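> @MW can you paste both from yesterday?
MW: sure, first one:
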Amino acid sequence: MTEDSDARHRDLATKLRAMLDLAPVGRSSTIHHLFGILYAGQLRGMKGSELERIAASAGGRASMGREIARGRRLAQYVDVKPEYAEWP
């Protein structure tokens, strides 16, 4: 990993952690999907192991990287409600 990609992973993990902190109890998977949708452009081209690293760095289980990938794939099919477009 390069220094630039490390910084990008840290930034994305910080954003995911902030979203998870604001999430209702029991909505972790949903938040990972939403994160994948909102940041699909920045996540484009990342491998599953990189998504797992982001999920783990955000304080969750690495396996939640799969949920981020699902959200990333959904991004082209959904419109995010305005109140969540800039969340958090």
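MW: second:
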Amino acid sequence: MTTGERIKKRRLQLGLTVPETADQLGVSVATMYRYEKGEIEKLPSTLLEPLARLLHTTPAWLMGWEDGDDCPPAGYLPLIRDVLTGGSLLDQRNIEEYIAPPPFQQADFALRCRGSDMANVRIFDGDIVFVRCQDVRNGEIAAVLLDGVPMLRTVYRVPDRLTLRAENPLIPDLALSGADQGRVRIVGRAVCFVSAVQHEADRAAGDWRRFVGRPAAARGGGVRPMDEAQARLAWQHEQHRLRGDKGSEKE
């Protein structure tokens, strides 16, 4: 499968049109069609990572650097490892797993909090923090890369100085000025988090999103992949069946 075929396959899985995709990436519709048709074989590095985020996949999968044609489940987000290996943030080597997105929030990826750096805002060790790649204002919590290592910090900017603050009085602020500011890359704004306990419970039980894309009977005959509404119904049916099985076991 070529890169263009992968782009088109993933775009169709997510229900995106070519004009919508082109608008999100800031390119023309004609250029987007050329990428999908393979007329432009090499994606520029400035476009590859935004496109991977938009399609909820990885640059490695889009470029065919990974084995197999199967893409991560539609709508799921990459959970970035503790320490990046360099290069693209969404390099497959940096991804621990794919997880369901948070309800009622838009996010591009997730980080796992380590240590007690953010304890005063009730984000604890092992919690999953969802991040959206957008500008961060003073006083907001951000995912930052400090010398290539991801962490969560509250960001404060003043002329010629950037301060990264851990929400823990035992950890000193890090104030950077001049060339030292180049050590930091502010990736995006933290939009919400899920406790480690709840995340593990959800992963063990699964949820309705894992049914999206599975084959289902279509009206008028034939088989089509389930949309979100059908996936929710399938999940509910499974939950009723499982509860029924457990009731039979008790009897």
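> thanks! The chain has a mean pLDDT of 77.
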